[in-house]
Write a structure and sequence with these properties.
Blueprint: H1 2-14, E1 34-37, E2 45-49, E3 54-55, E4 58-61, E5 66-70, E6 78-79, E7 101-105, E8 109-114, E9 121-126
Length: 127
């Protein structure tokens, strides 16, 4: 019963609401550089979760390529590293619990992401 309550609390804390940033815009009004797209037959990289970590923890792709995210049902993908660091925290880098989502990275840079309930990090490097 306690496990159910903890899961319910974690899901409620991470659930979407109307205040969640739209993947098509960033905090300053400019277009997001990470955009949700249909999954291609062969993405440039695939990120899953294994225990309490992303697998792989870091991927390197070229500008305009797609990363397929497939977190387990108890993990998600949220923008930025935890705690905050110098990686790009693009609002488009957002995948809900257990969802399969493909994201295209349209600008070069180092994009950090993390699992909200567990705090582990991952990184996409875009050349």
């Amino acid at each position: 019963m306690m496990r159910f309550v903890l899961c319910a609390v974690a899901l409620a804390a991470c659930g979407g609401d109307s205040k969640t940033p739209d993947a098509s815009s960033s905090h300053d009004g400019a277009a997001a550089t990470v955009q949700m797209v249909s999954c291609p037959a062969t993405p440039a990289a695939t990120v899953t979760t294994s225990g309490f970590m992303y697998s792989p923890q870091m991927v390197t792709i070229n500008q305009g390529q797609v990363v397929k995210f497939m977190p387990a049902v108890d993990h998600n993908v949220a923008p930025g590293h935890n705690p905050t660091d110098s990686t790009i925290a693009d609002p488009g880098l957002n995948v809900t619990f257990g969802a399969t989502t493909c994201l295209m990275f349209t600008q070069t840079g180092m994009y950090g992401f993390h699992c909200v309930p567990h705090g582990f990090n991952g990184t996409v490097i875009v050349n």
